[in-house]
Write a structure and sequence with these properties.
Elements lengths: L5 H4 L12 H9 L5 H5 L5 E4 L17 E14 L5 E8 L4 E7 L3 H5 L5 E6 L2 E2 L5 E4 L2 E5 L2 H5 L4 E4 L8 H13 L10 H6 L5 H9 L4 H33 L11 H8 L6 H14 L6 E6 L5 H14 L3 E5 L3 H15 L6 E4 L6 H10 L4 E4 L13 E7 L6 H8 L7 E5 L6 H7 L4 E5 L10 E5 L3 H16 L3 E5 L14 H11 L5 E4 L5 H12 L5 E4 L12 E7 L6 H8 L10 E5 L11 H12 L3 H12 L1 H5 L1 H4 L13 H13 L3 H14 L11
Parallel strand pairs: 4-7, 10-15, 10-16, 11-13, 11-14, 12-13, 14-15, 17-22, 18-20, 18-21, 19-20, 21-22
Antiparallel strand pairs: 1-9, 2-3, 2-5, 3-4, 5-8, 6-7
Helix pairs in contact: 6-8, 8-9, 9-25, 9-26, 11-12, 12-13, 21-22
């Protein structure tokens, strides 16, 4: 029997398959399907179980599960509304009753399906008071007879819609392709197939398209997801190897006792987790190949002091360090934090943003190669900036920079700086491994001792709960504490019920007449914002009403109450970040998640309810990041199109962590280069977008 590799199958055009004429081939090409490999990797978006086919007479009111019916079309009608919405209705008779299936918008239904066609309809039925059964935008497929339906197997596969290529034709084409391939060369040996309880490659392709049971489909999907994660491991491994062999870095001289000296100089004790992360960084920057490391930690875990330890070691070696943040507010917050930590180490720190007036002086300091820390924004990568002694580049919130922007900071013909990537919010485990696989990972997984748990509660926008918000504020003010009130927008949006910061500011100022209430928002000049934060720091402001400019980096120990207005409008990680602005001192702190005025919990979106329930019940940022992934999906959490994960066809970052871990273990157990090279060749072919964004820093 001849083994056919996926590479070999990629050379066979789909035009060689029966039923794929010129028009269909053109449509498939538009969807990126050009070869047999592309076709068999067009995975079903869902399956319909033929055992779930129901008679129309058996469907009861309030039935809320997806079902399949089978019958003959008795009427086709098209109606266009005044707003030009096209509604196509098919009336279907299954000998036990009539159903109407309606499609809103698509034009192909009326042209493709005719009276007397036999069809299967799959969707959730809506039983009207008259007893009529309706389906809205259901899946549909035509069959010449019930005999043909029975030949499809127990499960009917439905594929993503491709214009001019019916589901039936796709399924027949895939069946043809798989019949022509008795075997597909496997990259996993027989022993490992048993060890990891996965199908062979050919079985996985057969059963993912034509399963006899849902368990068969799940097992096939597991194997194909395993392969996709293997491709990622291969690509990341290649990227790391090339980077380390082609790039040179300054190998910094760090004494084994340096971490102890660092600890003695700062006025508080490092946690064991912080020490571990510092040691990992020091071990990397001692080497002549550049470090690429991601530093993760929850809100308040002390990431900045770990970064400060790296900066100190760099400058003690007479090299420069740079920290690039996405916004001026964040850059200014970092400046304040690093000044606080590095005042014990005689380190010069300069801010470089578009608002800084003496930029020419800073350009000169950078050009001379003086061992200093430069904190800035995109201004760090302007043409006038000429780093020639850069030992360490720290990139904060790196996902908010483009690939080219990040590269510009670290590109150097002679020496590449060591790179430390920091994120404000924890990244889900699967995402971290899948997106940042070419980076080493340091995790601060404990908080400094003595921190009290922040009390969290969700309050509705009703009058009684609004009063409760004010009562809580008075309690904290009586305790000589300060309060943050955060709103999503600066001005009232037209036709919007979202509280604007300026509006809320007026409300709080009129309610709390005996206290100093002030306003901070992103449209203010940097010096204005700095003054407000300084006044808050010095206790001159009792209540600061603000937009999300205080989301990260602010450290005011006397602030004990955070009130988040229109809390349902914020993302989960953002809510967690904002909560982390209090609870930094010895007093008990509290966070109130206040729903938009006039709204109850039940009136907000399901996602909004899920976020508020999660934030009220959890204070672990890593757990919240996993929940956020479940709520929003990987595309929005990871920025899929930027990361090359758009090439993932079947692996799911939300559900497949265990498979990812197994694939990683398998990859690093592979002996010899032949299999790794073969895997890399396949990976390059199947993950073409990865190469465009290969460097995740």
């Amino acid at each position: 029997m001849v083994d056919r590799s996926l590479h070999y199958l990629n050379e066979i055009p789909i035009s060689e398959l029966k039923g794929f004429g010129e028009k269909r081939v053109k449509s498939l090409h538009k969807s990126g399907i050009k070869s047999v490999t592309d076709l068999i990797r067009l995975f079903p978006k869902k399956h319909y179980d033929r055992s779930q086919i129901m008679n129309l007479s058996d469907i009861l009111p309030d039935y809320d599960k997806e079902i399949t019916i089978f019958g003959k079309i008795t009427d086709v009608s098209v109606f266009t509304t005044k707003t030009r919405l096209r509604i196509t209705t098919l009336t279907i008779n299954d000998d036990t009753g009539l159903a109407r299936a309606k499609w809103f918008g698509p034009q192909y239904i009326a042209s493709r399906y005719k009276k007397d066609d036999i069809v299967a309809i799959a969707g959730i039925p809506d039983v009207k008071k008259t007893g009529t059964v309706e389906f809205k935008n259901p899946a549909i497929e035509s069959f010449s007879s019930e005999q043909e339906l029975s030949e499809t197997g127990s499960f009917i596969s439905f594929y993503p819609k491709i214009d001019g290529v019916p589901n039936k034709i796709l399924r027949e084409g895939i069946k043809q392709a798989l019949k022509r391939i008795p075997e597909i060369k496997d990259i996993v040996d027989e022993k490992s197939l048993n060890e990891y309880s996965i199908y062979s490659r050919i079985d996985s392709y057969q059963k993912v398209h034509f399963p006899e049971s849902f368990d068969e489909y799940k097992k096939a999907k597991k194997r194909l997801a395993f392969d996709e994660f293997l491709y990622l491991q291969s690509l990341f491994n290649h990227s790391k190897t090339i980077y380390q062999s082609e790039k040179k870095a300054f190998d910094l001289n760090i004494d084994d006792l340096f971490i102890d000296l660092f600890q003695k100089q700062i006025p508080f004790k490092l946690t064991s987790s912080q020490k571990k992360c510092i040691e990992e960084i020091y071990n990397d920057i001692k080497k002549a190949s550049p470090m690429k490391r991601l530093l993760q930690g929850d809100v308040g875990s002390g990431k900045t002091i770990v970064a400060a330890a790296a900066v100190t070691a760099t400058i003690k070696n007479n090299k420069q360090a740079a920290l690039m943040a996405p916004t001026e507010v964040l850059a200014e917050q970092h400046l304040t934090s690093f000044k606080k930590y590095l005042e014990y180490f005689d380190v010069d720190i300069h801010l470089l943003t578009s608002s800084v007036k003496d930029r020419e002086d800073i350009y000169e300091i950078i050009d001379r190669g003086d061992p200093v820390l430069i904190i800035g924004t995109h201004a760090l990568i302007q043409d006038k900036v000429n780093f020639n002694n850069l030992g360490l580049a720290i990139i904060d919130e790196q996902q908010r920079f483009g690939v080219e922007q990040r590269k510009k900071l670290v590109d150097n013909d002679d020496f590449t700086p060591h790179q430390l990537v920091m994120t404000a919010t924890p990244i889900p485990r699967t995402t971290a491994l899948a997106i940042y696989g070419d980076l080493e990972l340091s995790v601060i997984d404990e908080l400094p001792p003595g921190r009290k748990k922040i009390k969290s509660r969700v309050l509705s926008g009703g009058k009684r709960d609004n009063k409760e918000v004010y009562e809580a504020a008075y309690e904290h003010l009586k305790n000589d504490s300060q309060i943050f009130v955060v709103c999503p927008y600066i001005e009232e949006s037209e036709n919007s019920d979202i509280k604007a910061a300026e509006n809320v500011f007026q409300l709080y100022r009129s309610e709390f007449k005996d206290y100093k209430v002030d306003l901070l928002h992103g449209k203010m000049k940097p010096e204005e914002k700095e003054l407000k934060m300084l006044q808050m720091q010095n206790g001159e402001i009792d209540i600061l009403v603000s937009t999300v400019v205080i989301e990260v980096g602010i450290d005011i120990t006397n602030a004990t109450l955070m009130i988040i207005e229109s809390a349902e409008r914020f993302g989960l990680n953002q809510l967690h970040q904002l909560r982390g602005r209090v609870g930094r001192g010895e007093k008990q702190s509290e966070c109130i998640f206040h729903i938009t005025e006039g709204k109850s919990f039940s009136k907000i979106t399901n996602d909004g309810q899920s976020r508020l329930k999660a934030i009220e019940e959890n204070d672990d940022g890593f757990k919240l990041s996993e929940i956020d992934l479940q709520i929003r999906g990987e595309g929005k959490v990871t920025g899929t199109t930027q990361s090359g994960l758009s090439d993932l066809k079947i692996a799911n970052l939300r559900t497949d962590y265990e498979i990812l871990e197994k694939s990683k273990n398998y990859f690093f157990d592979i002996q010899g280069d032949d299999l790794k090279n073969e895997l890399f060749t396949e990976a390059k072919m199947l993950f073409p977008n990865f190469g465009k964004v290969e460097d995740s820093t």
